């Protein structure tokens, strides 16, 4: 049985390597960020100190890395894969990168008398865990067949796409559709939410009609539940759409829907949702419509809001002001499909059911979106707000910021934090 080196232990790489170990393969792992190999070591993996060392001790090297720059470093760096390749080694890159980089890797690896397959996957984290990924593979078909057993230890199907670079081309075309579909799903759910329609009921309509899609199945419930734990991050979706945009520009293919989807995910990234699941794009739409994409308010949510209102009324009666330092990230649309941004200091001095009042010396404008960062001890993630009111007094601007789509647990957490900072 061939020995395998696996480099890149992120959301996808770790479960892929784990499946190889469970199938009885001898696996040596390496990750640029230390500490991610512990789970695999418990399953029997060995660790290497560098990509070079990993390649030197392996018959097959598999890489699953986030972007072109990181791939370049892992392959071409001082301790890179190319420095440790032995003749006859097969390298399988499952990263989503530019086709031009895949073709360059193929040429440079062949020059080392070794073999290269570009083999990106589709299926995201759940399929990586279950071993049901689909691999789209470019390269020598003979090498594909020789490594079929290894690839299928991590997935359910191999689709051969052609020569080197064709696998990554297929993946970018595929993810273009994913990004467009995801944006379309979220936009439709936002329309329904603004119209007062229960989100779960509308999702059933989508899944039963002509709008049914894999994205509706994978992301619909996550959007409703505000579960933005990462299956496939918004930042990676944006990265793939950018790669696809460069590819199609070079091909001379007009892609208006790709460019629209890319702009939407850029807005999501600028609003601070890049490290969340791509479904977090829904939070941008929720800000735009001023409503949450959610089921009709359950009693527990109403009770929570009532408790927050009660706490606010108690504070007003006792006239105890808040003086909580915050940082406010400000993003401005530049009209060319990009944003500029900076962070300014502010003071949180009031809170309501749906918003916060921030005082700052920095001038902002109506309808501007800001990201509010509470002190670390609050334990709350950044909150996005829209400025709906501005009052200037005592040399400061007092901004009323409408918070949209704040999950129930965060409302409760905010209430508890406010209570701790209020003394009667």
UniProtKB/TrEMBL annotation:
Family note: Belongs to the HIBADH-related family.
Source organism of the structure: Cohnella candidum
Top-level taxon: Bacteria
InterPro entries recorded: 3-OH-isobutyrate_DH-rel_CS (IPR002204), 6-PGluconate_DH-like_C_sf (IPR008927), 6PGD_dom2 (IPR013328), 6PGDH_NADP-bd (IPR006115), HIBADH-like_NADP-bd (IPR029154), NAD(P)-bd_dom_sf (IPR036291), PilZ_domain (IPR009875)
3-hydroxyisobutyrate dehydrogenase-like NAD-binding domain ranges (all copies): 165-285
Positions of the 6-phosphogluconate dehydrogenase NADP-binding domain: 3-162
Name of the protein this chain belongs to: Tartronate semialdehyde reductase
One Pfam family, short name: NAD_binding_2
Domain PilZ residues, every copy: 313-419
GO MF, one annotated term: NADP binding
GO BP terms in the entry: organic acid catabolic process
